[in-house]
Design goal:
heterotrimer; A: two-stranded antiparallel ribbon; B: 520 residues; mainly alpha; two-stranded antiparallel ribbon; 2 strands
Chain lengths: 112, 520, 126
């Protein structure tokens, strides 16, 4: 059995999942085939609806930059991120210091 | 005389010879150079795969350098080996396979990626040396030789990280890595020297058979563990990693990932095979678990807020290394107790080793995809990218596979290894899988962000002319994609034949000693 | 084979050299962690490498030992251990390579950033 994996806690078989995906996609295609048939290509139905405004030609004007995603998460975690940014100061002396201190701590831990 | 007996020597000889031949070959024109580069790396991959096949049955290969006979470990009545020797068991050959696959893919990718730049002689020679260093680290059976290979791969990687020396950031990243790496290397040498002073031996098997418990041993263990944890990027010592991974050329980053895996090999080998008497108490096991949890959590927290694609992936590397440290720490807690090994230790070790292989393939793939984006668009900033899936469908498709695998979405291989780690660490403490799962969710979140920002969204005017990258780069990515998919489709075969054997080899310390010292 | 640490444990003179090694390591770490000038940091790295080499040579030292070559060993029977000297030679070569590479990086960094102060070389952060 090349795909069957028994860990002692449970079983894993990737083909069960692939079978599941095939069944689900068959179901989805069936559901889709029940939908409306009156859509026409190359008409106004193709146009992007952008709150009734004119859509700019350059997509750069209407895309969300990556720095803006998870803004809420970042604000909620502000205290932690302040600490983390201070830790990653970019100063090589600091990094060397962290290394030496960690070595010393690990040494104390293993020694006693 | 069978050529298969000399595979361990060929493993390091081919890349070293390649490095020396590079200046001559690179003068013979572009085609010869490219063919030579890819062919040598294919040879290395072939040797690595053959070694892996040779250790399937739990055999330990030993190769003595510079002796009258390559298999004679104890010449003329010596009680311990005096020559440098290579000792490859199933665990070592697993790492060798990871390194050689990633090195091959990185080489195929680099042919087109680095085509626009001069300095090919230096690039190729350093790439060969770095491969030789990483392979040697996973093959050697001698502690000082291990140090030498660590230094070979480190020095080559300093050069390659600063390869674009007209960019100030690459120089800065290289200098930072070099500064800490040199302190680390000297501490490693102090530890190895102390062990030599006490036991008069440098061979890992011989040291393991003589190892007692004492202050000097504890100090050496602490130094070696912390230095190698630094090399593979554990939390408080990780800050060089995103810098170096982001600034190196992408084909090199793919190889840097596996060099850190080779350091991880050293760490695990030292904990399991050389110092098991000291590491069985639980202190070192919990140390690895705590380092792993911190790396996982803080690494992924920093990754979520990055907006430079390779830097983001660099922070993910830290969190992925955390999974392996956690798994091997759990395995170390169970070491020496047959019941606990059977209950959760073996599963943890198999999961950790599975993750090592997964990580070197999908992480290499993701870094190569990031390199393709940089090649096509000329920027690494996700804020400026967008809508590229229309222009680069193949890159987008392979990126999705890599991203799904690293986030642990079932049916991909990342899920299987993470699942084994969750299950086994749950048996130790329920908090551990909780941290790992939070990390996994945040990983998925940040890769969803990368995919959305780079490939989805409206087409941007300045990227209208962007085309799919050349076939050579696609081939490099395809190698790692195929490797990832193979691991996805046949996890049972890989676990039964590779990871099970590797975990058993780690547990079988007597076998490791016996291969060197014979019937003693 | 007894090791030199155990052999000389009784007299202070035998162990004084190890104290020198420890002092050198501490001095090197001090200069790496506190100095701001890149060249001074490189000097710290070089001193650290030399102190480790010193340590390795010291491990192989035997009191009144001769050269570890059979026909050059002189009058006495004892010879110092050759292996640590080989290790030291390798380590010296590695230290030479790293020092040279590090100094060349410092030259290039100085060209790009226009400074030798490590506090100002931090474009990669966060």
């Amino acid at each position: 059995m090349w795909s069957q994996l028994d860990t002692g806690f449970g079983h894993w078989n990737v083909f069960v999942w692939i079978f599941f995906f095939v069944v689900i996609s068959g179901f989805v295609l069936w559901a889709r085939s029940l939908g409306r048939m009156d859509y026409k290509r190359n008409t106004d139905q193709d146009e992007i609806y952008w709150s009734g405004n004119q859509v700019p030609d350059d997509g750069a004007k209407i895309s969300v930059p990556a720095s803006s995603s998870y803004w809420g998460f970042r604000v909620a975690m502000e205290p932690l991120y302040t600490l983390l940014y201070r830790f990653h100061s970019g100063n090589a002396s600091d990094y060397a210091g962290y290394f030496v201190v960690t070595v010393a701590l690990i040494g104390l831990l293993v020694l006693f | 005389m069978n050529w298969r007996d000399h595979l361990p020597a060929l493993l390091v000889m081919i890349p070293l010879l390649g490095a020396f031949l590079t200046p001559f070959v690179a003068s013979c024109g572009k085609t010869v150079r490219n063919v030579f580069f890819v062919f040598s790396m294919a040879l290395v991959l072939f040797v690595g795969a053959s070694l892996c096949a040779a250790t399937f049955d739990g055999r330990v290969l030993v190769y003595v350098m510079g002796g009258e006979s390559f298999s004679l470990t104890l010449p003329s009545g010596m009680s311990y080996p005096v020559r440098i020797l290579f000792e490859i068991d199933a665990f070592g050959s697993l790492l060798i396979l990871c390194v050689s696959v990633a090195a091959f893919a990185g080489a195929v990718f680099s042919i087109h990626y680095m085509d626009r730049f001069s300095g090919w002689k230096r690039f190729m020679a350093l790439y060969f040396l770095m491969t030789a260093g990483a392979l040697g680290m996973s093959a050697t059976g001698d502690l000082f030789n291990f140090f030498v290979f660590v230094e070979i791969s480190s020095i080559a990687s300093f050069g390659l990280i600063a390869f674009w020396r007209d960019k100030p950031e690459s120089l800065e990243a290289s200098f930072k890595y070099m500064l800490i790496s040199q302190i680390a290397a000297m501490l490693l040498l102090i530890a190895i020297g102390s062990l030599y002073g006490k036991y008069n031996a440098l061979n890992m098997g011989a040291l393991s058979s003589m190892m007692r418990s004492g202050t000097l041993e504890r100090v050496s263990l602490a130094l070696i563990v912390s230095v190698l944890a630094f090399k593979c990027g554990a939390f408080p010592m990780h800050a060089w990693m995103p810098d170096a991974y982001a600034e190196a050329p992408s084909g090199v980053t793919c190889l840097l990932v596996t060099v850190s895996q080779a350091s991880f090999y050293g760490l695990i080998r030292v904990c399991y095979s050389i110092f098991p008497g000291l590491t069985q108490g639980g202190t070192v096991g919990w140390l690895l678990i705590v380092l792993g949890c911190m790396s996982m959590f803080f690494g992924v927290m920093m990754a979520v807020v990055q907006h430079e694609i390779k830097r983001l992936m660099g922070y993910h590397s830290i969190s992925q290394v955390g999974y392996m440290l956690l798994a091997m720490g759990v395995g170390l807690l169970a070491l020496g107790d047959g019941n606990r090994v059977a209950a959760y230790g073996l599963t943890a070790m198999k999961g950790g080793l599975f993750h090592v292989m997964n990580y070197s393939f999908y992480k290499g793939l993701l870094f190569l995809c990031a390199g393709s984006l940089y090649y096509a668009t000329g920027t690494r900033d996700l804020d400026k990218m967008g809508g590229l899936a229309r222009n680069m469908p193949w890159t987008a498709g392979m990126f999705v596979i890599g991203a799904a695998a690293i986030s642990g979405l079932p049916p991909f291989n990342g899920f299987v290894s993470k699942w084994m780690i969750y299950e086994s660490s749950f048996a130790v403490h329920p908090v551990l899988p909780a941290v790992a799962m939070i990390t996994s969710v945040l990983t998925l979140a940040s890769f969803a962000k990368v995919f959305q920002a780079a490939f989805l969204g409206p087409a941007k005017a300045k990227f209208v002319a962007v085309r799919e990258v050349p076939y050579g780069m696609l081939a490099g990515m395809a190698i790692l994609t195929v490797a990832t998919l193979l691991l996805t489709l046949f996890p049972g075969w890989f676990t039964g034949n590779l990871f099970e054997n590797a975990a058993q080899a780690l547990l079988n310390r007597q076998g490791y000693i016996h291969a060197v010292l014979g019937g003693m | 084979m007894t090791d030199s640490i155990a052999k000389n444990a009784s007299d202070f003179a035998g162990n004084a050299a190890y104290v020198v090694v420890a002092l050198l390591v501490i001095m090197a770490l001090y200069s790496i962690l506190t100095q701001k000038n890149l060249i001074k940091i490189c000097i710290g790295i070089a001193v650290l490498g030399s102190s480790v080499n010193f340590f390795l040579v010291l491990l192989g030292y035997r009191q009144r030992g001769g050269i570890p070559v059979y026909y050059l060993r002189g009058a006495g029977d004892a010879m110092v251990l050759p292996t640590p000297q080989c290790l030291t030679l390798t380590a010296i070569v590695i230290a030479l390579a790293t020092t040279a590479l590090m100094l060349s990086l410092v030259i290039l960094i100085n060209k790009h950033y226009g400074t030798m102060n490590i506090d100002e070389i931090r474009r990669l952060r966060g």
